[in-house]
């Protein structure tokens, strides 16, 4: 601690870990807390408050009283008074109770723990709630509406009622919403109130949903087709299978959406086609597309051709980045990709689970004249230089490939466990020769030493030695 005792002027984050917070606290302990954190102590630069409620507390009829509330009220009051520039509030509960016969009282105390701390939320802009251990009674006055709250992250694995209240009260002001561990049968709370009326998000720009598929497709949510619930959405991430029976999430935002991350299966593609979601070049501002195969329960999986045809079909004039994910082995069809529009605009192609031989890699790069960054795993080189050690490789490839690309700069190798070091080195060398701007092969640190040794051995031998000066770039920027 600095001698001038002004350390608090540099504090940006306040973390409070309330170990065994529900145990009885007497007045003397509270007086000690007041001395440690007096009323006059202010953290002028503190923006984030993180409160962890944890502990393993034995509750019985004798020790259930308001003592724990006194400490929680004290924490809430201090947070408000000492953080004049507060922005983000994080609340994590990891309460572990040894439940006795007094179950009703135990649940009441659980509710108090979060309810009192949530009184500070009204003045924070960003809220992160991870309350997996809290049960809430329907209709409990839990979270007030606040015009200050514009960003919310919420884990609603067990506390669906709080999720219902949060979105209903704060939807008009939210610009960013992340919801994870949401059971599918409750996703309707995101878009409808108790009476079935739509909930709109007029300012929401970022929506990140992770749904638990515990219900059948027949229970999927459907909303009034005349209402655009997310008219200003720019960022949409769906890291699980689509949970709606219509185009709810895509309605009315074709002119704003810039980033799309979706899990794809056959049913989802059919739904998008039925509602003409991506037809007629609607999403003209879509800049980045991340598409991954979905493996949901009782859902038909896509084959590789269907997956590539759909994903590359999402390209718009503004799209510069595409990422394809499948935890199997993706095998792209060059013929399918070649028929897709706007290939000239693509700059970054991430296919980290795809193994591409040199011939396929060259064919793919040639389809994408403005590609600067490629991520894939090297496959068979299929070029035999034996008996032709003096060959000029530029001439060797000139009839088919050279120059392959004038813009390709970087090749990223994703998984060190699947990398064949010599294949990687040969491919990197040939890309450097065929692409005048190529300067960098990004290899994981665990394979870097072996990769450099393979490069040195190859560059010192024919037919690569004549390119040794040009190939030195492969050792730089690592």
Q: From N to C, what is the helix and strand string?
A: EHEHEHEEHEEEEHEHEHEHEHEHEHH
> Can you tell me the overall shape?
globular
Using only C-alpha atoms, the radius of gyration works out to: 29 Å
Instruction: Report the major sheet.
Output: 15 strands, parallel
Strand content: 15-25%
Stretches where pLDDT is under 50 for at least 5 consecutive residues are 20-28, 55-65, 95-113, 132-142, 214-218, 386-390
Looking at how many chains there are and whether they match, the oligomeric state comes to single chain
> Mean pLDDT, as a whole number?
76
- Derived from helix and strand composition plus strand pairing, the structural class reads alpha/beta
The amount of helix comes to 25-40%
Number of continuous helical runs: 12
Identify the strand order in the major beta sheet: 1-2-3-4-5-6-7-8-9-10-11-12-13-14-15
Ends distance:
38 Å
Please give the number of β-strands.
15
Keywords: Membrane, Transmembrane, Transmembrane helix
